[in-house]
Automatic annotation (TrEMBL), chain A:
Entry keywords, A to Z: ATP-binding, Nucleotide-binding, Transport
SUPFAM superfamilies named among the record's database cross-references: P-loop containing nucleoside triphosphate hydrolases
GO cellular component, one term: transmembrane transporter complex
Family: Belongs to the ABC transporter superfamily. Macrolide exporter (TC 3.A.1.122) family.
PANTHER family: ABC TRANSPORTER ATP-BINDING PROTEIN YTRE (PTHR24220:SF648), IMPORT ATP-BINDING PROTEIN (PTHR24220)
GO MF, one example: transmembrane transporter activity
Alphabetical list of CDD domains matching this protein: ABC_MJ0796_LolCDE_FtsE
Name of the protein in question: ABC transporter ATP-binding protein
Organism field: Dyella tabacisoli
Domain ABC transporter: 2-240
Xref: InterPro entries: AAA+_ATPase, ABC_transporter-like_ATP-bd, ABC_transporter-like_CS, ABC_transpr_LolD-like, MacB-like_ATP-bd, P-loop_NTPase
TrEMBL record, chain B:
Protein name per UniProt: ABC transporter permease
Protein's cellular compartments: Cell membrane
Any one Gene Ontology cellular component term annotated for this protein: plasma membrane
InterPro entries with a match to the protein in the record: ABC3_permease_C, MacB_PCD, Macrolide_Exporter_MacB
Transmembrane intervals: 21-41, 310-332, 365-388, 400-420
Length: 241, 437
């Protein structure tokens, strides 16, 4: 479903080149639920934005659903984003001026879907996340957990084959985080491929497979000394408290 | 999708109301200033007789010579001698000469006082040459000209004043204590500028009310009510007979010619006539003649007042400044919404979609600016007399074409101004926006 081979992403300024991703390799099969973990600044989010075709990459190859995407133009990339990918962000990223119904409608509008079909899908998605009764509410009138559920409904409304989630529970309290996670698991059980970036080990443990990223590379945790150093650092910090 | 974008545009008008109000006012004032001055410019620069302007010509013969003419150009009117020569030669399909007359009109009913009416002494061809529309009757014919008949054509307004608007053809009217038989009543007819009488400075004055045969006016030794220009020439004539044989110019001649070949032929005729005058010893200079069609004649006569052109230029400059201001405001408005753009891009909007959405939004701002601009244009029309001569200012009208133009210019210019801010909006990197959230 998602395959990156020797992929690199370099940010260049006049004086310095920064590798956000270097020789990055990952292969996510259809129907998998993969958690991508790693310390801050390791390149997790950069991976996710490249995976979601929101950003270009500098070198290597990226096949999404069998299509090599590096040569696609803006229109083609936008079409793939719209039809095959659903996003769930840590900050929810709802449009504040639109009500819940209209927020969920946004990706369907870009697909050129007829009004009746849009309405059907929107209401189905909202019912699924338990917010059908809040269709006319504005994001500011909802709790954080409800906003994230709306974001999930928006991602699901287009029936994407790949769901990309960036710290989906990062801004939620434990109870709300748990319910969002249960929702993601349910979506996965129904056949969606999910790639989730997270700091949270508990969350990562609920995924089928964990991929660890350090310094812009996917590493084998058992063999990488940087992982052990990271674990020690976290343990020391925990004891220090 | 356009309707959806228009709805989003309307929604956006409510967002940042101060910024929106500034943009709308900027566009409204800019477009209103331009439309008021354009309305005046349009009124004074239009073709007053588009269906025939290419076939109507004003002939000129230089009877003053290089010493007295202006920059080598023949006078803008003719002497009686030259005008009669042209009429008698009858070289054009139709021809007329005219001079302005001011006559006292005796009311037909009750005990009203006489009043002054302006009009023209002319030939019967005048009415068919200039497509004068008639409410009742028609113009007089060539036989009436030859017979020096006491007939008259009056305007609809004068007919209303004298006869209550009834068909007055065949009835009599007393002008300057002379009785005339009415043969026609014109519809309201007031071409602007009044191309056929530029010599008297009547381009924008009130419509003429009465017309009488030139031949009859000459028989009555009627003075011109318009200009009489003698430049520095010596032969001004003494008394009526001397005056009409002198070199003062006061008659406006017009001819109707069907084709360019006819016009060339007529110009040759004018040249030959001037040559003949030279041979006869009247002109001591080489033939200097002109034949201009209506639009060339108006250009030559500077029919468009310089203040009209200048004010239009200033207003357009002001509009450009308003648009530059709008570009800045739109840029601020659009870039504030970078996070929304990032979300939309992530959800499948292409750059083209962002262009469409934001240009539609600019169109809604332009529409709102245009509606307010219409109101301000209406106010501006009422106050145009403070900038222009009243007789010119009153020509400006807020008709349907100007309403449409105001809205179109406001929307078009705002959309054009929005291209740069929209381009910037379309360049927003969704990844950066979503990361920074």
């Amino acid at each position: 479903m998602l395959k990156m081979t020797h992929l690199s992403k370099v940010y260049r300024t006049e004086v310095v080149e920064t590798y956000a991703l270097r020789d990055f390799n990952i292969d996510v099969k259809e129907g998998e639920f993969v958690a991508v973990t790693g310390p801050s600044g390791s390149g997790k989010t950069t991976f996710l934005t490249i995976a979601g075709l929101l950003e270009t990459f500098t070198g290597g190859e990226y096949h999404l659903d069998g299509v090599e995407v590096s040569h696609l133009n803006d229109n083609a990339r936008s079409k793939i984003r719209n039809e095959k990918i659903g996003f769930i962000f840590q900050a929810f990223n709802l449009i504040p001026d639109l009500n819940v119904f209209d927020n969920v409608e946004v990706p369907l509008r870009y697909r050129g879907m007829k009004s009746a079909e849009r309405k059907k899908r929107i209401m189905e998605s909202l019912e699924r996340v338990g917010l059908a009764s809040r269709a006319k509410h504005y994001p500011a009138e909802l709790s954080g957990g409800q906003q994230q559920r709306v974001a999930i409904a928006r991602a699901l409304a287009g029936s994407p084959r790949l769901l990309l989630a960036d710290e989906p529970t990062g801004n939620l309290d434990t109870q709300m985080a748990r319910s969002v996670l249960e929702l993601l698991e349910e979506i996965h059980r129904e056949g969606a491929t999910i790639v989730m970036v997270t700091h949270d080990p508990e969350l990562a443990a609920r995924a089928q497979r964990n991929v660890h990223v350090i310094d812009g590379q996917v590493v084998d945790l058992a063999e990488d000394p940087r992982f052990h150093a990271h674990v020690a650092q976290v343990a020391e910090a925990t004891h220090g408290r | 999708m356009f309707v959806h974008y228009a709805q989003l545009g309307l929604l956006s008008l409510r967002r940042n109301p101060l910024l929106t109000a500034l943009m709308i006012m900027s566009i409204a004032f800019g477009v209103a200033a331009s439309m008021v001055t354009y309305a005046v410019f349009r009124a004074v620069s239009g073709d007053p007789i588009p269906q025939k302007s290419a076939h109507l010509f004003a002939p000129q013969v230089d009877n003053w010579g290089p010493q007295y003419n202006r920059k080598g150009e023949p006078a803008s009117a003719m002497t009686y001698t030259d005008a009669m020569a042209l009429m008698h030669a009858h070289k054009a399909k139709r021809q007329t000469v005219l001079f302005q007359v001011l006559m006292s009109v005796m009311p037909t009913q009750g005990s009203g006082l006489p009043f002054k009416s302006a009009g023209y002494a002319t030939y019967g061809d005048f009415f068919s040459m200039f497509d004068v529309p008639f409410q009742y009757g028609q113009g007089w014919n060539a036989q009436d000209d030859d017979n020096r008949a006491a007939v008259a054509v009056i305007s609809r307004d004068l007919n209303q004043k004298l006869f209550g608007g009834a068909n007055s053809v065949g009835r009599e009217i007393e002008l300057e204590e002379q009785t005339y038989r009415i043969v026609g009543v014109t519809e309201h007819w007031d071409p602007k500028p009044r191309f056929f009488d530029m010599f008297n400075g009547n381009a924008y004055t009130d419509a003429s009310e009465v017309y009488i045969p030139f031949t009859h006016a000459i028989d009555l030794k009627m003075d011109t009510g318009g200009n009489n220009s003698c430049s520095g020439v010596g032969n001004r004539g003494v008394g009526w007979d001397g005056w009409i044989r002198g070199e003062c110019v006061w008659i406006s001649p017009w001819v109707e010619l069907d084709s360019k070949a006819d016009a060339d032929e007529y110009l040759q005729f004018l040249h030959a006539y001037a040559q003949e005058q030279q041979r006869a010893g009247r002109f001591s200079w080489a033939p200097n003649v002109r034949l201009r069609d209506v639009n060339a004649w108006l250009e030559f006569q500077h029919a468009v007042p310089p203040e009209s052109r200048l004010s239009l230029t200033v207003a357009l400059g002001f509009f450009v400044i308003c648009l530059v201001n709008t570009i800045g405001l739109l840029l601020a408005k659009f870039m504030r919404r970078a996070p929304e753009i990032g979300i939309r891009r992530a959800l499948g909007a292409s750059r083209a979609d962002i262009y469409r959405q934001f240009l539609a939004e600019a169109g809604m701002v332009g529409l709102a600016g245009g509606v307010l601009g219409l109101f301000l244009t209406g106010l501006g029309m009422a106050g145009a007399g403070m900038v222009f001569e009243p007789q010119i200012a009153r020509l400006a009208h807020l008709d349907m074409s100007l309403v449409a133009l105001t809205l179109l210019v406001a929307i078009g210019a705002t959309v054009l101004a929005a291209f740069y801010p929209t381009w910037r909006a379309a360049q927003v990197q969704p990844a950066w926006q979503l990361k920074s959230n």
